[in-house]
Amino acid sequence: MDGQKDGVLSDLAAYARFWFAMAVTVVGAVLTFSGSMLGLFMGRKLGRRWMLQFPILWARMILWAARCPIDARFEAPLPKDGMFVFANHQSTLDIIALFIVMKDHPIAFATKRELFKVPIIGWYLTMAGFIEVDRGNRERAIKAFSAAGEQLRSGAAIAIYPEGTRSIDGSVLPFKKGPFMLAIDTQTQIVPVAVDGAQHASRKHTKKLYGTTIHVRVGKAIQTAGLTAADRDALLVRTRTEILRLHRDAGAEPSPLEPMIAPPGKRSGERE
Would you write out the chain's pLDDT as a tens digit for each of its 272 residues? Predict the structure, then answer.
């Protein structure tokens, strides 16, 4: 009976924390969006960097409300040039966590098209140079990633989740091939990142939020200079193997090694 009572109280607290964090998210979005508008008067490069500082402040507000501290460790300094950040995806909170972990090299995300239609958030995403991804329109997706290549050549950092979806159980899913072809086409280095703990804080399709530590491990950059399309699968395997190692180092249970590559025809990286 006591355990049941504790469970009910825990669930009630989790619901309350979720709605409190949502309120902080909305208020924080309005405040940080307003401050970021000054970037419109600073020129393209400086203005974009100014705008990308505000998600860091916004992220700190959200994780404070969620009671989710971050434990981050780097195996090497971040590159100073343009880079892709490839990470596993457990929850919306690991997106928030990456803003803070990468604060010294502010990042933009490849983001699904639907978010660009949300008032305030969508406006900000467009102005800050986030990449709009339309999974249902191949031609539009190619055009969006061509724009990403231009940003990368100017020294930007762009985060992509090669699994293509959130993992329900927190394990690292198979990777899709597309992001690796993009890395080769643009000759852009990949920084592998593993996240663990976010799935315990906020599960997919629920409105409960549990306070827990989010562990982030950032590995050494993987170079793509000189690679061709023929090297795509090998690059995918190398990157996923490294993220699996970092994931274990973050305290996670070992994820299945195979399959490395997401089955063809799947919209996401979910296993069969």
Answer: 333 334 666 888 999 999 999 999 889 888 888 888 888 788 777 877 788 888 889 999 999 999 999 999 999 999 888 899 999 999 889 989 999 999 888 788 877 777 777 776 777 777 767 777 766 666 666 666 666 776 777 777 889 999 988 888 899 999 999 889 989 988 999 999 999 999 889 876 778 899 899 999 999 999 999 999 999 999 999 999 999 999 999 999 999 999 999 987 655 555 44
Cβ neighbours of residue 56 closer than 8 Å, sequence gap 6 or more: 99, 100, 103, 106
Domain positions in the chain: 68-249
This prediction has a pTM of: 0.85
Q: Which residues contact 239 (CB under 8 A, 6 or more apart)?
A: 86, 162, 175, 180, 190, 192, 222
Gap between the Cα atoms of 66 and 18, Å rounded:
7
Instruction: Output the six-digit token pair for 264.
Output: 């063809």
| Backbone dihedral angles phi then psi of residue 18, each to the nearest 5 degrees | -60, -50
What six digits make up the tokens of 140? 């539009």
The domain defined by 68-249 carries CATH number 3.40.1130.10: yes
